[in-house]
Amino acid sequence: MIDRSGFRPNVGIIVCNQRGDVFWGKRVGHRSWQFPQGGINGDERPLEAMYRELREEIGLLPEHVSVMAWTRGWLRYRLPRN
């Protein structure tokens, strides 16, 4: 669901291993990299969306993941056109 300002509730996930290495995924068809992320569906809770996106995008299951922290509120940003 997109709000009046044009934003859609979304989860963005920073994935790191025990050594502190951070995962960046290359975007298909683009010359850019990003963290796993995606929109929250219907009545899905943010944590459910996070687990779904991790499974869909990089194959991680809940038993592979430990949530270390999350933001207190929503962050809003606009992507540059290019």
Task: Compute the average pLDDT.
Answer: 92
What is the general shape? Answer: globular
Give the structural class: alpha+beta
Strand content: 5-15%
Distance between the termini: 25 Å
Q: How large is the radius of gyration?
A: 14 Å
Uncertain ranges: none
Helix count from the secondary structure assignment: 1
- Main β sheet profile: 2 strands, antiparallel
Helix content: 10-25%
What strand order characterises the main sheet? Answer: 1-4
Topology pattern, helix = H, strand = E: EEEEH
Number of strands: 4
What would you say this structure looks like, in words?
With 82 residues, the chain is of the alpha+beta class. It has a domain at 10-64. 16% of the residues lie in helices and 12% in strands. The protein has 1 helix and 4 strands. It has one helix spanning 46-58; strands at 10-12, 25-26, 33-34, 37-39. The strands form 2 sheets. The protein has a two-stranded antiparallel sheet. Strands 2-3 form a two-stranded antiparallel sheet. The protein is globular and about 40 Å long. The mean pLDDT is 92.
